[in-house]
Amino acid sequence: MTRIASLALLALTAFVVPSAASTPITSLILSGVPVVLDGDTLAKEQRCLAEAIYFEARSEPEDGRIAVAQVVLNRVRSGTYPGSVCGVVYQNRHRHLACQFSFACMGKSLRVRESEPWEDAVRLARDVYEGRIYLEEIGASTHYHADYVQPDWAKRLRKMDVIGRHIFYS
What we know:
Helix content is 35%, strand content 16%. By secondary structure, the chain is an alpha+beta fold. The strands form two sheets. A three-stranded antiparallel sheet has the order 1-2-3. A three-stranded antiparallel sheet has the order 4-6-5, covered by helices on one side. Strand 5 (159-163) and strand 6 (166-169) form a beta hairpin. Helix 2 (39-57) packs across helix 3. The longest helix is centred in the first third of the chain and has 19 residues, at 39-57.
């Protein structure tokens, strides 16, 4: 696993900007355009990312969980998907089996039942979101699927890596 936390490479990182208010304001750089996020919005975005990690990949090795988070952030940056983490993770969630991440629209309860994997997901979401972890071998991947399915779209994309049961594409 190659971990790189370079702003130039990521072009997506969060950092605290000094504020006159007592609540810190966080800026998010998306493709070079700063977006100001308050603490509540930042917390919500990181929770959505943790939910994607937990529900999509909690049984995967750590690199696989990081890669799932990186795919979500790559989609946010792409301009093809919604411009927020929560928007990407829950895109089309009200359309049965038409969502971007299967857990979001399969009609299952999104209840966290395992505390240790949840705590890991929260930690990884924060670290990936804030640019402390980056998997070079996943790079700008915007897609992945489990190794037991063969979606049509996979033929049109470049295979980047296989981690655990997931295959990643850009």
